[in-house]
Amino acid sequence: MKGDRFQDRDCYLFEPFEEAFFHWDHRRRTIRMKFVGQEVDVEVPHDHRIFNDAIRSGREVDRVDYDCGSVPG
Q1: Which of 19, 42, 54, 73 allows an S-S link to 36, with CB 3.0 to 4.6 Å?
Q2: Secondary structure, 3-state, the chain
Q3: Which residues contact 64 (CB under 8 A, 6 or more apart)?
Q4: 0.85 exceeded by pTM
Q5: Inter-CA distances, 11 with 2, 27, 36, 60, Å
Q6: Tens digits of pLDDT across the chain (73 residues)
Q7: Which of 24, 61, 66, 20 lies closest to 43, judged by CA?
């Protein structure tokens, strides 16, 4: 996948320019995405452009930020 941090734990990322959240589920090996303010997330492919932007220039957030769908402080 995208590196060691994705191998043994779930990761939650926030990409501020697009205001998008991502959840990498390491057991299922899937990526879920939602935008700020959305309650429902959707599965996206591993090569999704905004997901890759989040890996490069976004920041890791916690599950609470992801679940709330609000911009992390």
Answers
A1: 19
A2: CCCHHHCCCCEEEEECCCCEEEEEECCCCEEEEEECCCCCCEEECCCCHHHHHHHHHCEEECHHHHHHCCCCC
A3: none
A4: yes
A5: 11, 11, 17, 7
A6: 456 666 678 999 999 999 999 999 999 999 999 999 888 999 999 999 999 999 999 999 999 999 988 876 6
A7: 24
Structure tokens at 14: 């926030």
Tokens 């599965």 label which residue?
43
